[in-house]
Amino acid sequence: MKSDELDIPAALAALARRWSLPEAAAGSLERLVSLIGSDGSAPTTVQEPERVLDDHLADSLVALELRDVDWHEAEIADLGAGAGFPGLPLAIALPGSRLSLVESNARKCEFLARAVAECELDNVEIVRERAELWRAGLDRCDVVVARALAPLPVVAEYAAPLLRAGGSLVAWRGRRDDADEVAGARAAFQLGLETREPVMVKPYPAAERRHLHVMVKVGKTPAKFPRRPGVARKHPLGR
After folding, report:
1. Which of 20, 61, 142, 229 is 20 to 30 A away from residue 203, measured at CA?
2. pTM exceeds 0.90, yes or no
3. Is residue 109 part of a domain?
4. Per the structure, how many domains does the chain have?
5. CATH number of domain containing 31
6. How far apart are CA 34 and CA 28, in angstroms?
């Protein structure tokens, strides 16, 4: 279907039905789609309405299918929030939860502020900070989400210190990578996390090789984590 033929309200209503979203969600999502397409400084190359619906909105909301993750009335952090995905759609879908969009880039934070205002969200905090330096987030989060951020060991190191006991990390990935998963499991062990079997998801009909990786905080994260900025990427755990 071409962009000019796409019935955006109908497509958003279908998304809302699929994930049983609140009544006001479709309108907020429509405003977000419009902003992504019209704001020249939006930090994403995906701006066509049908691609925003699939690659951003549906791909973000599909995490709600994870029944073992407690999303409701939760403290959630989106690390490396960028253009606001998955954080903004989750904030719209979960008005009873609090979302912290953690992003170190000032221009991206400015766009996030415009998006929060446009979508009339009162459950979102924009944190202009690197994940490793966000001290206010330590032991605070019920859920940490990360989409297209870094290899699993790096994401695990960013997330573990932020999670409360029993909290969950949800990492969006494409095709499964055995080496990355093994390293991620080793890193998780060092960080007080326990890995779960990756879940294959299909956020929209044409989606292929989409997986959600979940790690649960089952022990105390050693005080030496997080390491200083940049170290996790240069010297990842579990390798």
Report:
1. 142
2. yes
3. yes
4. 1
5. 3.40.50.150
6. 10
